[in-house]
Amino acid sequence: MTLALQTVDRPRAFPPRMTEFTQRFWQGLSSGRFETTRCDDCERLTFPPKPFCPHCWSKRIAWVPLSGRGKLYAQTVVHAAPQVFQGEVPYRVGIVDLDEGLRIATRVLADGEPTLDTAVEIVVLNYQDGPLFAARPL
Amino acid sequence: MHRPAPEEAVTSLHDLSAVDLLAGYRAKQFSPSEVLEEVLAQRPIVEPLGLYEVPPRGDGAACIVLVDEDIARASGKPYVRVRGKGFFHEGAHQINEVPNDMIALVSAQKAGQAAYEEAGIAASDIDLAELYAPCTIIEVLASEALGLVPRGQGARLCEEGATSLGGRIPICTSGGLQSRGHPAHVTPFYSLFELNEQLTGRAGERQVANARLGATSAELGNYNAALVHVLEGVR
Questions:
Q1: Sign of the four-CA dihedral B112, B114, B115, B117
Q2: Burial of residue A24, with CB atoms counted within 10 A of its CB: 0-12 exposed, 13-18 middle, 19 or more buried
Q3: Could you report the predicted ipTM of this complex, rounded to two decimals?
Q4: CA distance linking residue A42 with residue B207, whole number of Å
Q5: Is residue A1's pLDDT more than 80?
Q6: What is the pTM of this model?
Q7: Residue ranges per domain, chain B?
Q8: A19-78: per-residue pLDDT in tens?
Q9: CB contact under 8 A, B99 and A101
Q10: What angle do CA B208, B145, B89 make, to 5 degrees?
Q11: Exposed site from A41, B18, B41, B105, fewest CB < 10 Å?
Protein backbone atom coordinates (compact mmCIF):
# COMPACT_ATOMS: atom_id res chain seq x y z
CA MET A 1 0.00 0.00 0.00
CA THR A 2 1.34 3.42 -0.95
CA LEU A 3 0.76 6.47 1.20
CA ALA A 4 -0.76 9.72 -0.06
CA LEU A 5 1.89 12.38 -0.72
CA GLN A 6 1.74 16.09 0.11
CA THR A 7 4.33 18.67 -0.87
CA VAL A 8 5.41 21.29 1.69
CA ASP A 9 7.29 24.29 0.29
CA ARG A 10 9.80 24.76 3.04
CA PRO A 11 12.53 22.78 4.78
CA ARG A 12 11.79 20.70 7.87
CA ALA A 13 12.19 22.64 11.13
CA PHE A 14 14.02 19.75 12.80
CA PRO A 15 15.19 17.15 10.25
CA PRO A 16 15.36 13.63 11.74
CA ARG A 17 18.85 12.14 11.96
CA MET A 18 19.29 9.67 9.13
CA THR A 19 21.69 6.78 9.72
CA GLU A 20 22.98 4.11 7.40
CA PHE A 21 20.33 1.82 8.85
CA THR A 22 17.34 4.21 8.80
CA GLN A 23 18.18 5.53 5.32
CA ARG A 24 15.93 2.88 3.80
CA PHE A 25 12.95 4.06 5.88
CA TRP A 26 13.32 7.74 4.93
CA GLN A 27 14.05 7.10 1.28
CA GLY A 28 11.08 4.76 1.00
CA LEU A 29 8.86 7.22 2.84
CA SER A 30 9.55 10.00 0.33
CA SER A 31 7.98 7.85 -2.38
CA GLY A 32 5.06 6.70 -0.21
CA ARG A 33 6.40 3.46 1.28
CA PHE A 34 5.83 3.05 5.03
CA GLU A 35 8.05 0.27 6.33
CA THR A 36 9.42 -1.09 9.55
CA THR A 37 11.34 -4.10 10.81
CA ARG A 38 10.09 -7.48 12.04
CA CYS A 39 12.03 -10.07 13.98
CA ASP A 40 12.69 -13.33 12.12
CA ASP A 41 12.92 -15.20 15.44
CA CYS A 42 9.94 -14.00 17.49
CA GLU A 43 8.11 -12.42 14.53
CA ARG A 44 7.23 -9.25 16.43
CA LEU A 45 7.16 -5.85 14.77
CA THR A 46 8.85 -2.74 16.12
CA PHE A 47 8.64 0.96 15.26
CA PRO A 48 10.71 2.93 14.52
CA PRO A 49 12.71 0.30 12.56
CA LYS A 50 15.70 -1.10 14.45
CA PRO A 51 18.68 -3.31 13.55
CA PHE A 52 17.73 -5.60 16.48
CA CYS A 53 14.54 -6.86 18.08
CA PRO A 54 13.67 -4.99 21.31
CA HIS A 55 11.52 -7.94 22.44
CA CYS A 56 14.01 -10.83 22.17
CA TRP A 57 17.27 -9.02 21.25
CA SER A 58 17.69 -11.03 18.05
CA LYS A 59 19.61 -9.35 15.23
CA ARG A 60 17.77 -11.38 12.60
CA ILE A 61 15.38 -8.76 11.31
CA ALA A 62 13.60 -8.15 8.01
CA TRP A 63 11.96 -5.08 6.47
CA VAL A 64 8.19 -5.34 6.07
CA PRO A 65 5.54 -2.91 4.78
CA LEU A 66 2.98 -1.29 7.08
CA SER A 67 -0.57 -0.45 5.97
CA GLY A 68 -0.38 3.13 7.21
CA ARG A 69 -3.87 2.75 8.71
CA GLY A 70 -4.81 2.93 12.35
CA LYS A 71 -6.95 4.48 15.09
CA LEU A 72 -6.43 7.70 17.03
CA TYR A 73 -5.70 6.89 20.69
CA ALA A 74 -5.04 10.43 21.95
CA GLN A 75 -4.51 13.93 20.62
CA THR A 76 -3.68 17.44 21.75
CA VAL A 77 -2.71 20.84 20.41
CA VAL A 78 0.68 22.25 21.36
CA HIS A 79 0.80 26.00 22.03
CA ALA A 80 4.13 26.27 23.84
CA ALA A 81 6.73 24.60 21.67
CA PRO A 82 10.50 24.17 21.62
CA GLN A 83 12.32 26.97 19.81
CA VAL A 84 12.67 25.08 16.52
CA PHE A 85 8.90 24.55 16.23
CA GLN A 86 8.01 28.06 17.40
CA GLY A 87 7.03 29.08 13.87
CA GLU A 88 4.49 26.23 13.64
CA VAL A 89 2.36 26.78 16.78
CA PRO A 90 -0.35 25.89 17.39
CA TYR A 91 0.02 22.38 15.97
CA ARG A 92 -1.79 19.11 16.60
CA VAL A 93 -0.05 15.91 17.67
CA GLY A 94 -1.44 12.53 18.55
CA ILE A 95 -0.87 8.91 19.42
CA VAL A 96 -1.97 6.41 16.79
CA ASP A 97 -2.43 2.67 17.14
CA LEU A 98 -1.54 1.20 13.76
CA ASP A 99 -3.62 -1.73 12.51
CA GLU A 100 -0.51 -3.92 12.87
CA GLY A 101 -0.58 -3.39 16.67
CA LEU A 102 2.12 -0.73 16.94
CA ARG A 103 1.64 2.54 18.81
CA ILE A 104 3.30 5.64 17.36
CA ALA A 105 3.45 9.36 18.10
CA THR A 106 2.87 11.64 15.15
CA ARG A 107 1.68 15.02 13.94
CA VAL A 108 -2.04 15.01 13.21
CA LEU A 109 -3.50 16.91 10.27
CA ALA A 110 -7.08 17.92 11.07
CA ASP A 111 -8.91 21.24 10.98
CA GLY A 112 -11.00 20.56 14.05
CA GLU A 113 -10.57 18.26 17.02
CA PRO A 114 -10.87 14.66 15.77
CA THR A 115 -12.89 12.15 17.76
CA LEU A 116 -10.81 9.58 19.62
CA ASP A 117 -10.73 6.11 18.07
CA THR A 118 -11.41 7.65 14.69
CA ALA A 119 -9.77 5.82 11.77
CA VAL A 120 -6.68 7.60 10.45
CA GLU A 121 -4.18 7.15 7.65
CA ILE A 122 -0.52 8.06 7.52
CA VAL A 123 0.41 10.57 4.84
CA VAL A 124 3.84 11.64 3.59
CA LEU A 125 4.83 15.28 3.88
CA ASN A 126 7.55 15.90 1.32
CA TYR A 127 9.42 18.99 2.48
CA GLN A 128 12.13 20.67 0.38
CA ASP A 129 14.87 18.81 2.24
CA GLY A 130 13.20 15.46 2.84
CA PRO A 131 10.09 13.67 4.12
CA LEU A 132 8.16 13.51 7.38
CA PHE A 133 4.91 11.70 8.06
CA ALA A 134 1.65 12.64 9.74
CA ALA A 135 -1.75 11.10 10.45
CA ARG A 136 -5.07 12.41 9.19
CA PRO A 137 -8.63 11.21 9.77
CA LEU A 138 -9.96 9.02 6.97
CA MET B 1 -6.77 10.28 26.24
CA HIS B 2 -9.36 7.68 27.13
CA ARG B 3 -11.18 8.52 30.36
CA PRO B 4 -14.64 7.34 31.41
CA ALA B 5 -16.15 10.82 31.08
CA PRO B 6 -13.84 13.25 29.27
CA GLU B 7 -15.87 16.43 29.78
CA GLU B 8 -16.26 15.78 33.48
CA ALA B 9 -12.56 15.01 33.81
CA VAL B 10 -11.58 18.26 32.15
CA THR B 11 -13.87 20.27 34.40
CA SER B 12 -12.39 18.59 37.43
CA LEU B 13 -8.91 19.33 36.16
CA HIS B 14 -9.60 23.02 36.21
CA ASP B 15 -10.84 22.77 39.78
CA LEU B 16 -7.82 20.71 40.69
CA SER B 17 -5.52 23.44 39.54
CA ALA B 18 -7.21 25.83 41.87
CA VAL B 19 -6.64 23.45 44.75
CA ASP B 20 -3.00 23.04 43.84
CA LEU B 21 -2.49 26.75 43.51
CA LEU B 22 -4.07 27.59 46.83
CA ALA B 23 -0.91 26.98 48.80
CA GLY B 24 1.10 29.23 46.56
CA TYR B 25 -1.57 31.87 46.53
CA ARG B 26 -2.29 31.86 50.23
CA ALA B 27 0.14 34.68 50.85
CA LYS B 28 -1.77 36.86 48.41
CA GLN B 29 -5.06 35.96 50.07
CA PHE B 30 -7.01 35.21 46.92
CA SER B 31 -10.28 33.36 47.32
CA PRO B 32 -10.62 29.92 45.66
CA SER B 33 -12.99 31.33 43.05
CA GLU B 34 -10.54 34.10 42.23
CA VAL B 35 -7.79 31.52 41.87
CA LEU B 36 -9.96 29.32 39.65
CA GLU B 37 -10.86 32.31 37.51
CA GLU B 38 -7.21 33.18 37.13
CA VAL B 39 -6.27 29.58 36.29
CA LEU B 40 -8.88 29.39 33.55
CA ALA B 41 -7.83 32.75 32.12
CA GLN B 42 -4.26 31.62 31.40
CA ARG B 43 -2.98 31.01 27.89
CA PRO B 44 -3.02 27.40 26.67
CA ILE B 45 0.23 25.42 26.84
CA VAL B 46 -0.75 21.92 25.70
CA GLU B 47 -4.52 21.50 25.45
CA PRO B 48 -6.44 21.31 27.71
CA LEU B 49 -3.72 22.48 30.11
CA GLY B 50 -3.05 26.18 30.59
CA LEU B 51 -0.05 27.99 32.03
CA TYR B 52 -1.00 27.39 35.68
CA GLU B 53 -1.70 23.68 35.12
CA VAL B 54 1.90 22.89 34.22
CA PRO B 55 4.88 23.54 36.51
CA PRO B 56 6.87 26.77 36.25
CA ARG B 57 10.59 26.47 35.62
CA GLY B 58 12.61 26.59 38.80
CA ASP B 59 15.87 25.81 40.53
CA GLY B 60 16.13 24.11 43.86
CA ALA B 61 18.22 22.09 46.25
CA ALA B 62 17.57 19.59 49.00
CA CYS B 63 19.79 17.82 51.51
CA ILE B 64 18.96 14.47 53.06
CA VAL B 65 21.03 12.78 55.75
CA LEU B 66 20.85 8.98 55.79
CA VAL B 67 22.20 7.20 58.85
CA ASP B 68 21.83 3.90 60.71
CA GLU B 69 18.75 3.97 62.88
CA ASP B 70 20.87 3.70 66.06
CA ILE B 71 22.45 7.03 65.26
CA ALA B 72 19.11 8.67 64.50
CA ARG B 73 17.69 7.31 67.76
CA ALA B 74 20.72 8.52 69.73
CA SER B 75 20.11 12.05 68.49
CA GLY B 76 17.06 12.20 70.72
CA LYS B 77 15.18 14.05 67.99
CA PRO B 78 12.23 12.91 65.86
CA TYR B 79 13.31 11.12 62.69
CA VAL B 80 11.89 9.28 59.75
CA ARG B 81 12.39 5.60 58.95
CA VAL B 82 12.33 4.11 55.44
CA ARG B 83 9.71 1.39 55.84
CA GLY B 84 9.59 0.20 52.24
CA LYS B 85 10.56 0.95 48.69
CA GLY B 86 9.49 -0.32 45.30
CA PHE B 87 10.70 0.23 41.77
CA PHE B 88 9.38 -0.84 38.39
CA HIS B 89 10.34 0.01 34.80
CA GLU B 90 8.04 -1.07 32.00
CA GLY B 91 10.91 -1.24 29.53
CA ALA B 92 9.76 1.62 27.29
CA HIS B 93 10.33 5.36 27.38
CA GLN B 94 7.52 7.85 26.76
CA ILE B 95 5.17 6.06 24.36
CA ASN B 96 5.33 2.26 24.51
CA GLU B 97 5.18 0.83 20.98
CA VAL B 98 3.06 -2.01 22.41
CA PRO B 99 -0.36 -0.40 22.99
CA ASN B 100 -1.30 -0.31 26.68
CA ASP B 101 -3.52 1.75 28.95
CA MET B 102 -1.40 4.89 29.20
CA ILE B 103 -3.33 6.39 32.09
CA ALA B 104 -3.14 3.27 34.29
CA LEU B 105 0.50 4.14 35.15
CA VAL B 106 1.32 0.44 35.53
CA SER B 107 4.83 1.14 36.82
CA ALA B 108 3.44 3.24 39.65
CA GLN B 109 0.96 0.47 40.47
CA LYS B 110 3.72 -2.16 40.66
CA ALA B 111 6.26 0.03 42.47
CA GLY B 112 3.58 1.03 44.96
CA GLN B 113 2.55 -2.57 45.62
CA ALA B 114 6.19 -3.56 46.16
CA ALA B 115 6.75 -0.67 48.56
CA TYR B 116 3.59 -1.41 50.56
CA GLU B 117 4.50 -5.09 50.70
CA GLU B 118 8.00 -4.37 51.99
CA ALA B 119 6.52 -1.99 54.55
CA GLY B 120 3.95 -4.59 55.57
CA ILE B 121 1.08 -2.15 55.04
CA ALA B 122 -1.83 -1.48 52.68
CA ALA B 123 -2.42 1.69 50.69
CA SER B 124 -5.25 2.52 53.09
CA ASP B 125 -2.72 2.79 55.94
CA ILE B 126 -1.00 5.78 54.32
CA ASP B 127 -1.71 9.10 56.07
CA LEU B 128 -0.43 11.43 53.34
CA ALA B 129 1.46 11.33 50.04
CA GLU B 130 3.82 13.68 48.26
CA LEU B 131 3.77 12.66 44.60
CA TYR B 132 5.81 13.42 41.51
CA ALA B 133 3.04 15.04 39.52
CA PRO B 134 4.19 17.70 37.07
CA CYS B 135 0.67 18.46 35.75
CA THR B 136 -2.74 18.48 37.42
CA ILE B 137 -3.94 15.29 35.72
CA ILE B 138 -0.79 13.40 36.77
CA GLU B 139 -1.59 13.89 40.44
CA VAL B 140 -4.98 12.29 39.83
CA LEU B 141 -3.57 9.36 37.85
CA ALA B 142 -0.68 8.71 40.26
CA SER B 143 -3.02 8.84 43.26
CA GLU B 144 -5.20 6.24 41.57
CA ALA B 145 -2.25 4.04 40.51
CA LEU B 146 -0.88 4.03 44.06
CA GLY B 147 -4.25 2.93 45.41
CA LEU B 148 -4.71 6.09 47.50
CA VAL B 149 -8.05 6.74 45.78
CA PRO B 150 -10.18 4.37 43.66
CA ARG B 151 -9.51 4.38 39.93
CA GLY B 152 -11.58 6.90 38.04
CA GLN B 153 -12.48 8.84 41.20
CA GLY B 154 -9.25 10.80 41.76
CA ALA B 155 -10.44 14.05 40.21
CA ARG B 156 -13.80 13.99 41.97
CA LEU B 157 -12.26 13.21 45.38
CA CYS B 158 -9.74 16.00 44.90
CA GLU B 159 -12.55 18.39 44.07
CA GLU B 160 -14.44 17.29 47.17
CA GLY B 161 -11.40 17.97 49.34
CA ALA B 162 -10.56 14.36 50.22
CA THR B 163 -6.97 14.92 49.06
CA SER B 164 -6.59 18.38 50.61
CA LEU B 165 -5.18 19.22 54.03
CA GLY B 166 -7.82 18.02 56.50
CA GLY B 167 -9.19 15.47 54.02
CA ARG B 168 -9.02 11.68 54.20
CA ILE B 169 -5.68 11.40 52.37
CA PRO B 170 -3.86 14.73 51.88
CA ILE B 171 -1.81 14.66 48.67
CA CYS B 172 0.99 17.12 47.90
CA THR B 173 0.76 19.26 51.01
CA SER B 174 3.79 21.17 49.69
CA GLY B 175 1.41 22.70 47.16
CA GLY B 176 2.48 20.35 44.39
CA LEU B 177 4.80 21.03 41.50
CA GLN B 178 2.61 23.72 39.95
CA SER B 179 2.79 25.69 43.15
CA ARG B 180 6.24 25.02 44.55
CA GLY B 181 8.06 24.63 41.22
CA HIS B 182 9.65 21.65 39.52
CA PRO B 183 13.46 21.53 39.39
CA ALA B 184 13.15 18.10 37.78
CA HIS B 185 16.05 16.22 39.34
CA VAL B 186 15.52 17.77 42.76
CA THR B 187 11.76 17.22 42.93
CA PRO B 188 11.91 13.66 44.35
CA PHE B 189 14.28 14.82 47.09
CA TYR B 190 12.03 17.75 47.89
CA SER B 191 9.15 15.29 48.24
CA LEU B 192 11.19 13.29 50.78
CA PHE B 193 11.94 16.55 52.59
CA GLU B 194 8.23 17.46 52.74
CA LEU B 195 7.38 14.04 54.18
CA ASN B 196 10.20 14.43 56.69
CA GLU B 197 8.69 17.74 57.83
CA GLN B 198 5.22 16.20 58.08
CA LEU B 199 6.21 12.95 59.80
CA THR B 200 8.33 14.75 62.40
CA GLY B 201 5.57 17.27 63.08
CA ARG B 202 7.40 20.30 61.73
CA ALA B 203 5.17 21.25 58.79
CA GLY B 204 3.61 24.27 60.47
CA GLU B 205 0.34 25.37 58.88
CA ARG B 206 0.65 22.52 56.35
CA GLN B 207 0.78 19.92 59.13
CA VAL B 208 -1.33 16.78 58.65
CA ALA B 209 -2.65 15.85 62.11
CA ASN B 210 -1.19 12.60 63.50
CA ALA B 211 0.76 11.84 60.33
CA ARG B 212 2.73 8.62 60.80
CA LEU B 213 3.01 6.90 57.41
CA GLY B 214 3.70 8.74 54.16
CA ALA B 215 4.37 7.75 50.55
CA THR B 216 6.41 9.48 47.86
CA SER B 217 6.83 8.72 44.18
CA ALA B 218 9.39 9.60 41.54
CA GLU B 219 9.15 8.77 37.88
CA LEU B 220 10.61 9.12 34.39
CA GLY B 221 9.02 9.34 30.97
CA ASN B 222 5.24 9.07 31.24
CA TYR B 223 5.60 7.22 34.53
CA ASN B 224 7.25 4.49 32.40
CA ALA B 225 9.34 3.88 35.50
CA ALA B 226 8.41 4.64 39.07
CA LEU B 227 10.14 4.62 42.46
CA VAL B 228 7.93 4.63 45.53
CA HIS B 229 8.99 5.03 49.15
CA VAL B 230 6.99 4.48 52.31
CA LEU B 231 8.30 6.51 55.24
CA GLU B 232 7.37 6.29 58.89
CA GLY B 233 7.79 9.02 61.46
CA VAL B 234 9.37 8.05 64.79
CA ARG B 235 8.69 10.56 67.53
A1: positive
A2: middle
A3: 0.90
A4: 54
A5: no
A6: 0.88
A7: 6-234
A8: 999 999 999 999 999 999 999 999 999 999 999 999 999 999 999 999 999 999 999 999
A9: yes
A10: 115
A11: B41
Cβ-Cβ pairs closer than 8 A, A with B, add up to 44
Mutate which: A38, A76, A85, A102, vs B, most B CBs within 10 A: A76
**Segments in chain B below pLDDT 50:** 1-28
Q: Is B166 helix (H, G, I), strand (E, B) or coil?
A: coil
Element (H, E) at B145: helix B136-145
**Domain range B6-234, CATH architecture:** 3-Layer(aba) Sandwich (3.40)
Would you call A46 and B97 a contact, using CB atoms and an 8 Å cutoff?
yes
Whole-angstrom distance, CA of residue A44 vs CA of residue B70: 53
The more confidently predicted of residues B92 and A124 is A124
Contact A134, A106 (CB under 8 A): yes
Question: CA of B50: which chain A residue's CA is closest?
Answer: A79
